[in-house]
Design goal:
Shape: globular
Oligomer: single chain
Order of helices and strands: EEHHHHHHHHEEHEH
Structural class: mainly alpha
Number of helices: 10
Strand content: under 5%
Number of strands: 5
Length: 298
Amino acid sequence: MLAERISFRFGQISLDRYFIDTALIAVFVFLNSIFARVPVITLVLGAVETLFLLYVLFLGSISSLAVTVLVLLSANIENPGFALGNRDAVFYSVFHLPYVKSYLLLGIMLLAMARCFWHFCCPPFSRQTGFDRFYFMNLFLAVSAVPMVFLVLACNDNGMMAHTDMWRYVARDGYQMIHAVSVLTLVYVCMKKDAGFAGRLKNIAAAVLSGTSWAAAALALCGNYYSMWGDEFYITCPLILFFAPGLILFLDEKHGWFHLLTGCMALLLQVRFTVGIAGTWWVYILLLLKALRFCILI
């Protein structure tokens, strides 16, 4: 599905698969963002994305399923409150569809995790590498969150039981935790069982960041942003744009100069626009500059 290279024989032209993935993701992000305020179109896009995810779930390989989940969940608009400036706006996506709401995606993620267990009997539970320990540490944190929730509810911390929307927020956080554990399990199993998956994951992660950055540049040129509190401009774009400046750290990798150009463009975009987490963004940039200084020194 994501071969290292793909050739189009128009004379001697050979186009790297990474740039094709970047272009496709850029188009995907642009369409989901530019039509975010048109419910009919977002409904069609969300339904097509969900059907494609179901197709890969039942007929695709585990590795293809992991890549598809990563792309659809990271390159989609997660929060209409940030993207549109209105939490009550009518917005559909793979995260939220009419009638089934977010339950369908929740079921898909549970089936994806169950397919990993069915296909491989169980994840390879060994703790021989740092990646194994990383997986089990995150799994432990996710599982330990369950008794902590009941403890906080039993103690009625900060009088939270009096809030009418409390159960809805608890359920929402529970859904997000299941999504995170499912994605983590998919990636872990693929990394252990598919020798070529690490390279695919590396390429698709960079393609998501690059594609989202170029889509955001096009969205800014099209005026797909809104203002709040005076000069505070929010761009309608997936929150993954937040991490795109980190591409500048991969100058020594393949396509390093393209990563540098894209990372700098994403940095300049977020100086002018925000995706809704501006305060945290400055901390991230400071850490990024610190890491870049470290990379230069060594």
